[in-house]
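Sorry to interrupt, but I need a hand with the structure work. Could you write out one complete protein record for me, on any chain you like? Just paste the record in under my message, thanks.

. . .
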Amino acid sequence: MLGTKQKPGHLTETMTAEDWTRDELLAALTWQLDAGVDEAIGDIAIDSYQLSQKQSQVAQKASTPPQTVKPGAKAAAPTPPKVAAAKRVLQSFQKTLGEAQNLAGNAKSISELATALASFDGCALKKTAINTVFDPAPSQADLMIVMGAPRADEDREGKTVAGSNRKLLENMLTAIHLKIEEVYLSSCVFWRPPGDKKPTVNDLACCKPFIDRQIELISPKVLVLMGESTLRGLVDPDASLLRQRGKWMEYTPPNGESIPTIATFAPHMLLNTPRQKALAWQDLRAIKTKLS
């Protein structure tokens, strides 16, 4: 059926293809094309949306290999995509952590540990940092300080403490009759987080095996944790510096002996909040007493 046509002297009636001339058929097709009709259809409407759903279901069934189930046994429920993805991420992180532990554990000296850290690419912070922040000297020290995450000055110079932070730390140590060259310095992570953000739990965990090995090799009499990120990375992921600072505790690395440990403010925190310097001075006096 093509449509209707008005014959002279007759009412409008349904016409078939045989009742149309060639020119009339071409004119009718041209009119339909101008109206936007560009596909031929049948007499019965087709739900294209429903058809596409059926096609996708058929394709999915064809791509899924058949699973044989023993008589009486229930088929295993498919693993949700999010659970499977989380499992892959966890396995990848465990592999990275195992690599860090092996590299750190095999280092027999601070210089070997520095070489091992340089070959470690498991921490995401390394991709955006300029330098790896690691101080190779001294090889022995009575006092070891683990700082917070490196900032811009530390990242540029590749030193654990640099710029105004270093000047303030030198003054703090001088107040208890120590030189900065006599103290072993480390960081809770060895690369600067972008925008000086706090390092993530994964960042801290990836770097911890190298810090623990530093502590074992240096074997200090006193360990100082400066900043909340350091406290959380080594002691308790939920720790609060304001509640924990100034309180002595024991820190034991995996293969080492227990070391008297205290948490206090990092230099950049004291520069930003000078009112905390009085509390920091109390902590310094406690450190001096413990060393003596």
Q: What stands out?
A: Strands lie at 3-5, 13-15, 143-147, 184-187, 222-226, 249-251, 259-264. Confidence is low (pLDDT under 50) at residues 7-13. The radius of gyration is 36 Å.
